[in-house]
User: What shape does this take?
Amino acid sequence: MEGYLLKWVNPFQRWQKRYFILNDHILTYCDQPGGRSKGQIHLKVAGINESKDDALRIIINTGTGQILLKASNVDEKNKWLLALKKNQEYCQRHQVFNYGQRIQELLTDIWTNFASFDEQLTYLKEKVSLNMQKEINDIINLGQYLKNGITLCCTLIEEEKIKLYGESDTIYESFDFENEIPLNTQTSNYTIRQEEQKQNQQENFNSYQFLETIKLSNPIKYNNIKYNRVYSRLSITNEATRKCLPYKQDPDEKFAFWPFLKECIGKDLTRIPMPLLFHQPLSALQFFASSFEYYETLKQAAKAEDPYKRMAYLMAFSLVRCILGIDCQKKFFNPVLGETYEFFTPEYKIISEQVCHHPPITAVHCESEDFIFSITMEATVGFSGTSIMAKLPGLVHFRNKKTNEYMTYSLPSIIVKNLLFGKMYFEQVGEAIYTNHTTGDIGILTLKERTSEKDAHQVKAVIKDKNGNIRCQISGHFNKEIYANNELIWKRNSVDPESKWYYFYSQHILQLNHLNEDILRSIPQTDSRMRSDMRALECGFKDLGQEEKVRIEEKQRERRKYMEENKLQHIPRFFKEEFDPISKRNQWVYLYNYEKEKHLIDLDLF
Assistant: This one.
């Protein structure tokens, strides 16, 4: 079907006449018949609806935005609406059934149920009497035996498929159900897909060889890479570091906030799925590691001789997080419950885990030979209609191993401004209190909303002793330099001009989501680096990334529903909630079991 419809462009150009062509599940539009295509709308996963306010309007929600169309009369609108929905239904009805994917889904379901089974038994083990402990242990061992047996069966099926490849194309194709010819499909199209797959198999041969090395040790991780549409397009190498992202991202990319955000006024945005294009390719768990580009500043907070200077260095380090919102005005991915992240260097180790989903709480632990740095981060995000505000009520804990000092500090709120008009920017506002619980010293940092470019990013703070006497004054700009009593204590690293194409990431931040063979062997399947939606965005596969984001979020909802129906509770693996008698608040404390138990995780999150 094809013909003219009106398409909403923007508040200035308003409705413009476009010529639409519907072919399979793709709706293409141009200025006139035979003209150059101005865009395509993929209907496969889109929402197609009528407007309650306008009888001539059709609304298509693509997941990354909203397309508004208008017909000249009701009959024409109904014909287009019927054609769009019929093509979408036909496409969804005739999708090729992927038996390999079905095996993976069944295996995932088995592991999920066994994880719940283990949690129930662990809970029961704490309640039963001592004479029942042996019986409970026997059941746990039996469950583990069954789980490993089922996993091994599925792995052997995959191995038999690989053995048949190259011996008989006909037999192998019967196993390769992803490219099976559906009914009413032209053979020529199938042949093209065969050639494309053979080319991809040749390009990714080394990756497949590597994957075989992790098949038995971590079948969930193996399957999440082997059968994922994002990772099937990538080749995993063993490059230790990288100098840029795989895809150059337009720093001036425009996306329509208002059609999405107008539905969010007054709501908690942590409960609302955000379109992929609102994000940068990092999880909030990785965001905490980004500040450690300035690890030396935190090191000075532990080693400086003067106690007030130690607090001044800690204050300077805490402001590093403000830099990240200066140039890149996109949010981090919200972690799913149970998601983890590790970042190990010769000098320090960072371990983080998403310990609660509603409200979202992230636990972070970093340790070096000089200090222990931990965060219990909560967040509530609200939208007023013109700006977004994120409140962060958690506390950051800093233990100095050299002096045995214990310090905490709070975090200011984050405001996103100019959502609709003007240049959007992030701003840190509010008061942050730094407390040395050992000496009684107090630091007070106040970040005010900017009134002009002159006072943007300005830092003003004081450090007082336990008697209230001012001992140190902090000044400067957190995007340039920070001074303590007029002495330079922190300076921003130089910015690579090419970083504008990569979300303004520094070389340190570029490594946070880097994935090579060694890293892949080391991390568990719950690590943020395994997220296919982030990986797709990083590589420029934006439509596929949106589909993956929806799939991961739906998977999380299904798991939560299952646990609620069965009265199960998620138990964080590496952190435990405890009351801190010094700060008089609950915090999540690291159990020092990550490196020993990270490969025992049963969760399949991605």
Notes: Residues 164-205 have pLDDT under 50 and may be disordered. The longest helix spans residues 133-164. The CA atoms of residues 71 and 77 lie 5 Å apart. The two ends are 38 Å apart (CA to CA).
